[in-house]
From TrEMBL:
Superkingdom, natural source: Bacteria
Alphabetic keyword roster: Membrane, Transmembrane, Transmembrane helix
Transmembrane stretches, start-end: 12-36, 45-64, 70-91
Name listed for the protein in its UniProt record: Uncharacterized protein
Lineage: Bacteria, Pseudomonadati, Bacteroidota, Flavobacteriia, Flavobacteriales
Length: 92
């Protein structure tokens, strides 16, 4: 399944770039909003730093024109971390 998505991603890499940036940035901004709505604490700073780091790392990997496989994996990490932060902060 992973290799099928990766091959499709490699074929249409240039077409997916704007969609990936929008998706990652929107999910990252929702996660940041949910984190900032919580009570101020050290954990909030750590969560916000993780959110910003993975989102910016993904955007930087696109701008640095790294290999499509690396960009795809960093997209998955960015989406995973930001989704996890959204779920954790929405529930608590």
């Amino acid at each position: 399944m992973y290799s099928k998505f990766l091959n499709d991603f490699k074929e249409l890499y240039m077409a997916y770039i704007p969609l990936m940036i929008i998706l990652s940035s929107c999910l990252g901004s929702v996660a940041a909003m949910l984190i900032l709505m919580q009570e101020r604490s050290t954990l909030q700073v750590i969560e916000l730093s993780a959110c910003v780091f993975v989102s910016m790392f993904f955007n930087a990997s696109i701008l640095a024109q790294l290999k499509p496989k690396f960009v795809f994996n960093s997209l998955l990490v960015s989406l995973g971390v930001n989704t996890l932060l959204c779920i954790v902060n929405a529930l608590f």
